[in-house]
Request: fold
Amino acid sequence: LLNHAGVVGRLINEFSMLPGVGPKTAQRIAFYLLNAPEEVAHRLSDAVREARDNIKYCSVCSNLTDIDPCTICGNDKRSKAVICIVQEPRDVIAMEKSRSFKGLYHVLHGAISPMDGIGPEKLKIKELLGRLHKEKVEELILATNPNVEGDATALYLARLTKPLGIKVTRIAHGLPVGAYLEYADGVTLTKALEGRQEM
Ligand SMILES: [Zn+2]
Reply:
């Protein structure tokens, strides 16, 4: 790989930091943008800046949003009695694509992982408890990933919330063990949701 100095090198470096983008792809994207009409590059940089400046956490569910509360929390047609707890905003997108869930979400922004130094205090659990005290919630569906961290997080949340008299369920392991919710297709997610079991 050639060593590019200056502004071009900087651009390649920035792209190579993106998840899933290696140095070769970074170089390809950089040169594509430099060779394309100016407005292509401007549109991209505007979109990045605008999204980054305007996206914040929903004050209810902690999902990423540009309006607060987000469009899901603000939708009167959705059931407020059921909250599906997921690890990441991309998991909400996966669940929404499956079209099988009509309740609300809560996004933890991670999972408990002692090896990575992530304890419960680093997740949006305080916010969840605040919700449970304020709203009348009948069921919590724990849809954290079916791997060690996701299971540990589900167990922790079940112990924490069951004393509040709320039904706590875990999505079925129709998902392969160690899998990530975001990669599951709609049918698998729907089945996992339907087959959920009380913890
Ligand atoms: Zn929300």
User: Anything to note?
Assistant: The chain has a mean pLDDT of 91. The chain has seven helices and seven strands. The radius of gyration is 20 Å. Residues 58, 60-61, 63, 69-70, 72-73 surround zinc ion (CB under 6 Å).
